[in-house]
Amino acid sequence: MISIENVSQSFPGVQALDQVSFTIRDGEVHGLVGENGAGKSTLIKILSGIYPDYAGTIRFDGEVRRFGAVHEAQAGGVATIFQELTVIRELSVAENIFLGREPVRAGGRLDWNAMWAKSRAVLSFLDAPLDPRAPVRTLSVANQQLVEICKALVLNSRVIIMDEPTSSLTEHEVRQLFTQIRRLKERGITILYVSHKIEEIFAICDSVTVFRDGRHIATVDRQATSPDQVISMMVGRSLSMLFPPRTSRRGELLLSVRGASRAGEFQDVSFELHEGEIIGFAGLIGAGRTELARALFGATPLTSGEVGLQGRPSGAFRHPSQALANGVAYLSEDRKREGLMLELSIRENMSLAVLRRISRYLFLRPRRERELVDSYINRFKIRLTSVDQLVESLSGGNQQKVVISKLLMTEARVFIFDEPTRGVDVGAKYEIYKIMNDLTAEGRGILFISSELPEVLGVSDRILCMREGRLVREFSREEADPEGVMRVLTGGEAA
Amino acid sequence: MNAARPALKRVLGLRELPILVYLAIMIAVFSIAVGGFFSFKNFENISRQIATVGIVSVGMTLIILTGGIDLSVGAILSFAINIGGLGIVAGWPMWVAYPFMLLLGLVLGWLNGFLITRIAVPALIITLGTMNIYRGVIMVITRGRYITPIPKAYEAIGSGYVPFILLALVLALFIYISLRTRFGRNLFAIGGGEQSAVYSGVPVRRYKMIVYTISGLLSALAGMILVGKSGFIQPQAGLGYEMSAIAAVVIGGTSIFGGSGSVLGTFLGSVLMGLILAGLTMLAVNPYWQGLITGVLIILAIALDTVRQLRRK
């Protein structure tokens, strides 16, 4: 039993955890939920020895323990599988499993046979058909995660913490992960499952703890609660409507795509986007949606196909700057690499795509820049202390609003939003949907890519289903139901 | 709130603060330890000495801001004056020889930029290659011979305040460009997140070509000052300048990974290194110690910057 008693942690200017107390029972799968910034990550880092300077006490089976480093936590039986996996890609599965604890023979020589044999044993316990000698870089993300679980098992961990373990897994892989979790549970291992996906919590956990703004709100048995109740505890208000009401008015043709193909990525994709319309692109990971978006934005070339803007053939763009100049903007799914410059200020990030407009000749006009940036900060209620603050220090939702502001400033007509709500809390998601509605009310069109089916169905006017690089079916808003769409996406039903 | 508070906070938040503190300490220490250090004549002397590396460092700052690096600046400097020097030998007038040297610097810098933006190999490797190529070509063409003497008129650019004035002009121009122009802002963006910059419509390739070209041009200018100062041209000119320039940039607070830093900081970095060099020389310290001290300074500067960044988070 782990009892967390009055644990607090503060950073300059932030109370990350405020007098948190709750208990995790032995052998249960304990869900920890909360919006971004609720304090989940801070608690994980305390439990795994990264933040040793917290206030309060943590008892394992009644005994007070305070881990000063990750290896101390591991020795104490607590292993953490972070969202950013810590496997070393160039090493083999076995080397990763035993990293830092390699079995050796006399003279310090590595005992490869023991390493492979023990790796096979632990892999077979998890029913994972992996070759211990295979380099980890050749494995899928899901299997890399399995290697991390094996690592925790050879450490004889009693507690395994999983931080957003499904964030880059497919539906099928998620089901496999749940099977593994049940196996671990049968073995008496306690699991702290941290996520903000409510469905997963209800699918796998025995009890749920909710954090909000660094405080502990409740710990309840799964049977004694409901998803709606947990969501309302997370956001502090009842979200009877997850999606803002939407009235669509379809206007003139904005973008037409005919027979777009790119070798190895997508084939023969055709559709039209009108003013005021949100087209949702549903699909599993690897269906070719992001690849299509990138090609439409000019980041990669089309192999064949025609693109037209406002009814005139425009040809495919050869560079993102050309797309932007023609009123097509792309919000990347990879916010950190393709959306933001993390170590630059909010102001510099926001104005980057419109520097030409705030300059006279070659020279920037700081006043105009400030005015423009301030107007968007007010419009989207971005929470910040200063526009010169580094973007890195913002929460996921506010970071996303910075990227969206940057794109809106370009006054594009066509927006491609690729996973705009990824890593964003429930409240900020709602605001992003509202921004999308406002954009279409102004006559712009949006291509909306998302892997979360409920949001595709909740926001889009039409839903285009992609599977293995092809458009397989179109649903209208009215005829789309989750089960039907999922059957199409997984290939359970012909087009 | 007290009105002086935000001003104080701004000064404390200045990225050039650590280097300013170092500078003040160094000046104080040397002024006490060395008679005649705190004199106009000495500072004038130092100013002449730092002008060449200082100008090269400005170009290096722009490159490092974009997340790149250029190891060939010393080689470009040498190439420009040695090959350009053939024109002097051939009796070209100065107004042809000088622009020719600048042109050589510009072309070699452009070539670096071209290779870096066309081949998917880090700038470090490309410029390590071009450094050797440029130096190799110099040796083949000059066969290792010095060009001496050179006409008196060429010495003007290296005497009196001229080197320092040129440095000041270069500094003023690039401080302004880096802070107040679209081009300057985009350099920070490229270093801060290249892919994000591409997706924001920044012509990353073109701007990278431009920074390497500018750096080549500035290296050639520094070479011309060196010729004026020494009165001859030697094939080994500019040896090790790339390291001094990178040191000045880093000591001046620019992140070696790009995205943050300042041209002013680099200038202060070159001043600091120049002061230490002069002070130690006047103290008759064995010159071998100078490398050691520069090394310590680089590590100190980076350590301080890391602490500052941690505090900011």
- Output the CATH topology of chain B: ABC transporter involved in vitamin B12 uptake, BtuC
Strand content of chain B: under 5%
Mean pLDDT across the residues of chain A is 89
SS field, number of helical segments of chain B: 13
The major pleated sheet of chain A works out as:
6 strands, mixed
Q: How much helicity do the residues of chain A have?
A: 25-40%
Low-pLDDT stretches of chain B are none
Could you list the spans of chain A in which at least 5 consecutive residues all have pLDDT below 50?
none
Q: End-to-end distance of chain A, in Å?
A: 52 Å
Largest sheet of chain B: none
Structure description:
The complex is a heterodimer of chains A (495) and B (313). In chain A, 33% of the residues lie in helices and 25% in strands. Chain A contains 17 helices and 22 strands. Chain A has helices at residues 40-47, 70-75, 93-97, 112-125, 141-154, 171-186, 198-204, 227-235, 289-296, 320-325, 335-339, 346-351, 366-380, 396-409, 426-441, 453-459, 482-489; strands at residues 2-11, 14-24, 29-33, 55-60, 63-64, 78-81, 159-163, 190-194, 207-212, 215-221, 253-262, 266-274, 278-282, 304-309, 312-313, 328-331, 359-360, 363-364, 414-418, 445-449, 462-467, 470-476. In chain A, strands 6-7-8-3-9-10 form a six-stranded mixed β-sheet, sandwiched between helices. The longest helix of chain A has 16 residues, at 171-186. Chain A starts with a strand and ends in a 6-residue tail after the last helix. With 313 residues, chain B is mainly α. The radius of gyration of chain B is 20 Å and the shape is globular. The mean pLDDT of chain B is 90. The interface between A and B is medium-sized, with 35 and 25 residues.
